[in-house]
Amino acid sequence: MNKTILTLAAIGLTLGAAGASQATPQEDQAMFQSYFMKRFPNVPKDDFVNGAYALDPVGRENWEAIEEFPPYETAVSNGEKMWATPFANGKTYADCFPDGPAIAGKYPYWNKDKGTVVTLTMDLNGCREANGEKPLKPETGPMAELNAYIAFESRGQIRKVVIPEDDPRALAAYEKGREFYFTRRGQFNFACVTCHGANSGNQLRSEILSPAFGHTTHWPVYRSKWGEIGGLHRRYKGCNEQVRAKAFEADGEEYRDLEYFMSYMDNGLPLNGPGARK
Amino acid sequence: MQIRTLFAGLLAATLMVGLPTLNLAQAAEGPAKAQKAKKKTQQAAKPTAPAASPASAPAPAAVPAAAAPSPAGAAAGAAAAGVAGAAAAGALAAPADGDQKAALDKAIADAQAARKKAASVGGEWRDTAKMIKQAEEAGAAGDFAKGLKLANEAQKQGELGYEQAVREKGAGFPDYMKKQ
Amino acid sequence: MRSLGKFATGATVAALGWALLLPSPHAANAPVGDVEAGKAIAMDRAKGNCIACHMIPGGQSPGTIGPALVAMSSRYPTIEKLHAQIYDSTVANPQSAMPPFGKNRILTEQELNDVTAYIWSL
Q1: How far A16 CA lies from chain B's nearest CA (Å)?
Q2: Which residues of chain A does C104 touch, with a Cβ-Cβ cutoff of 8 Å?
Q3: Whole-prediction pTM
Q4: B29 confidence band (pLDDT: 50, 70, 90)
Q5: Looking at domain C25-120, does it have CATH number 3.40.50.300?
Q6: Could you tell me if A204 and C53 are in contact, meaning their C-beta atoms sit under 8 angstroms apart?
């Protein structure tokens, strides 16, 4: 009787421990990156920033031709004007961001005072509001153009998102973003990983599904489908709606946490925004 | 001793397997049936007063959605809705617009509740709100049958979205990524 | 311990009995479907859109996410099993990349029967 109790207790403890412990972010990242490098062994690691064009030679050729006269050029130059134009009170974005405009590599980050993940567009809007200007819609229009300029100036910076160990809320936000990524949603019952994990490289109709690794580096994107430049959260909204889930808010908590997780997975990759895509 | 234990096993399995499965089966194939049954009970339980009815007392209780109304109730509803003669025609006249509107209002309220419940766990589907709006528009145009259909469908979406989100709680890396 | 054996036997018998008695959404709708209507559903982006993920003979720009839809009646022993798969493929494979066309009410009951009849014919 005693032996049985001891054995059962031991089994229970082991199962409990296994269930309770999740991988650390570092372990997640190693597993994530290794999965895609193994799935696409002919793609050099840094090339994952080019999405489906890293996998499809024909698509790549077309894309490289487009990049000779990049469709995001206008957005970048509009963004450059915005950066340089003073607010009504005479200050400029440079006053908020002395290191600017090449600041894309600092985002997203965990803000301890606000107790939340902060995106570049949030801080840009924060700068506007601090200087008496109205905030802009983060994922489209002029803010996306400003973002395009900043991204262009930041090309080559290495993604290095930090999850500070001295604030457990940061890890919680990362884990929420992780859960979002793997949660099936919408009437079609798809998780992000459904298409961009095991089906990356496969074709949906005539489109090749891009791998999740490298998904965050090339934003904002001039998407032919949009006919204009748009941010990562705009794409999140579109993806959610494509699986018939109700989209969440750009720069809202869900998408901020999701961006935090996905960006952490991309740590080590060079930033290459803005991008051009179908 | 042996037979008793055998029966104990049969009973236990029946209860453990049968009860939850019956519930699931009902849930899976009968939300419409359950909905109709619920509606019939509720229609029977509460008086169905047409919202716009001016002078008359609320229509008598026990008027199931599709059944013949009592003359008093039909008259009141018909007067309120301005549909002359329909109720006077007799036992199997169409139910007063007021009853149908009440049924639709209830269905829309149920659909909104289901949608909000799904939203509370991040599981709302894309088309649910639109469907509810279309149900309201159909009701405003007097097409209660269409409105009911839309509202019921929207409610199902809300329920499915909620269940999905609850089921997916704790989602993480798939096994195929863990074992490489 | 011997009575435990008897208990288990009784339990198994009852469980199996229940399983056989349970109504199935598939046997009940032994699909009476229209093949032509089903083909239209399979190719329609707003409906089944099967072509998005599956190669279908005669279809344009098929996807490669799911297996090609050929020799279906040799791959599925009964049309009911095919119906069940289209109804909710996560039952057979929790990792499935196919939307639950029946369970999530993407298609109506009739549309599901029609598309099942069509796919079964491939």
Answers
A1: 15
A2: 187-189
A3: 0.77
A4: very low
A5: no
A6: yes
